[in-house]
Each structure stands twice: as C-alpha cells, then as structure tokens.
Amino acid sequence: MSANSSRTAAALALIADDMREVDLVIAQRLASGVPLVGTVSQYIISAGGKRLRPAILLLMCGALGYRDAQRFNMAAVVEFIHTATLLHDDVVDESTLRRGRATANEAFGNPASVLVGDFLYSRAFQMMVDAKDMRIMQILADATNVIAEGEVMQLVNMHDASLDEAAYLRVIRSKTAKLFEASARLAAILSHSSPEIEQACADYGQALGTAFQVIDDVLDYDGDAAEMGKNLGDDLREGKATLPLIAAMQRGTPEQCALIRNAIENGETERLDEIIAIVKSTGALDVTRQAAAVEAQRAVAATQHFQSNPYTEGLLQLAAQLLERRS
C-alpha cells in the first residue's frame, strides 16, 4: 500500500464503525415489496466504490463533535441520492462498465435502471422527512435539483468542442460537487453550528467534490483501466469536452486541435491513442492536475475553521490524497 493509500485508509478507519451503521440503515431502507427494486439497488450499492459522500458527512460530524444516530440516516440518504444519479447517468451515457463490472443498465436494462433510480430518490426523500428538519430538506432538495440541472447542462454540452474551462467547471460544480457540498453542510446543520462553520463545511465539500471530478477526468486519459474499473476514453466516446481536452486544444498545434475537435464532435475513439499522446505531450494533464490542486488547497483552507481533532485531520488527508489518485 502506498503512503497515499495509507493516509486515505487512516482517514476512513476513523469512521469504519459509523459506516457499518450506515450499511445497516441502507440494507433496512432498501426493503421493498417489489423484488426487482431490491435486486437492482443491491447490485449497484454492493459494487462498493469509495462512499466518499457519506464518509465526508461522517468525518465532518466527528470534526464538529456531533455523535447522534441521525448522522447514519443522513449518510444513507446522500448515498441513495448518489446511487440514483449513477443509475440514471449510466443510462444517459450508455455506459457498460462501472467499478469493474457491468453497469446496472447493462445487466438489467434501461427501464429497470431508470425506475429503480426513481425509487432511490423517493426513498431518500422519505428519509429526509423522518428527520423532521426543514433545513435538511431544503439543502437536500436544492442539491438534488442542482444535480439534475448539471446533468442537463452536460447533455446540452455534449459534442461541443468550443466549451471553455469556466463552462466545464460550472457543470461539475453542479453535477458532482453539489452533493459533496450538501453532505458536508448537513453535518453543520445536524450539530447546530454557526453560519460561519456551515459555510466552511460547504466550502470544503464543494472544493473537494470539484477536485475529485477534475482528477477523475484526468484519469480518463492517464489512468489504469483495470484499477479504475471503467473503459479509458469513455468521456471522449460520449462527446464530453473535459478539461484535459480543453487544455490540449489550447496548447496544441492546429492539426492536433482539429483532431481533438473532430473526436469530440463525433464521439470518435478510433484515434484515442493519438489523442492521449497529444494530451500528455501538450502538458494538458499538468494543467488539469494544477486546477485540481487549487481546489484541494481550498478544501484544506476550509478545515482551519474546525476543531483540531483526528476527524479534522482525516478531512485534511482526504483533500491531500486526491492529487495522487490513480483510480
């Protein structure tokens, strides 16, 4: 295990017992009288993954000294919302591989994936009501709405090779970072923290979520397909102009730019090896990693507002390790 992986493991070990409680809540709330609902839900949730959103909520609760059981319910809620977005994403993107195995839409078909995603969204909202806190409902309802807007923005931007960095960041701050932000903010609401602390939590979550997605986009051109459990070049096949491609077009020759532009506009991966070589030779990956580093540093700065304790240290470690992520 690398030093980086050890830091991540140490951060997550702090909440290992908490995460087991969250798993119990998830198992209980997945119960349905319709067998296919449980089968598809269990299929995607049992696939594992980093569980970063509930982990951030639990670590933030620890940093703020909140230990009540409601944190387990809210962690399960954000995992349900995230899982619903995955089910719908894979249908929209026509993905076939996630976390090293067939996506739910590949295994069960598009109709089952869409409808079970709807079930998970509605189950999450039932659980929010159980919390009997309008602020919690507001944060999660707003986040879910913004995520949907981000998905639509990304759909509109498909095959648009003129997308710039600002537009790219707008999409990922909505589509990915918003649930990270909400997860962190929930800890402040649960612990009745001050508005200043709540804002620091939100800043941490948004910055971490943005850095996470930027690095994810790097790995589509510089990752190990076996480690990532998905196909390299998936973003290009879907016509997504992510930051590595945007930076490569800004820095490459007219011929290199034309090749990338054509691939984005047509969703072509036949010349993927050439495009990966261009992305690397132009320094586009360095530009993209630097953009992630700026966000990770913003997350680190936000932790200065929290108590000094092992959980705050865990939040720091999560931000630091993102920049070394390889899968």
UniProtKB/TrEMBL annotation:
Organism, as annotated: Rhodoferax ferrireducens
Coiled coil: none
Record key words, sorted: Magnesium, Metal-binding, Transferase
GO molecular function term, any single one: all-trans-octaprenyl-diphosphate synthase activity
Enzyme Commission number, as recorded: 2.5.1.90
UniProt-listed SUPFAM superfamilies: Terpenoid synthases
Cofactors (names): Mg(2+)
InterPro entries listed in its UniProt record: Isoprenoid_synthase_dom_sf (IPR008949), Polyprenyl_synt (IPR000092), Polyprenyl_synt_CS (IPR033749)
Name this polypeptide is given: Octaprenyl-diphosphate synthase
Similarity remark: Belongs to the FPP/GGPP synthase family.
Gene3D superfamilies listed in its UniProt record: Farnesyl Diphosphate Synthase
Pfam families registered for this protein in UniProt: polyprenyl_synt (PF00348)
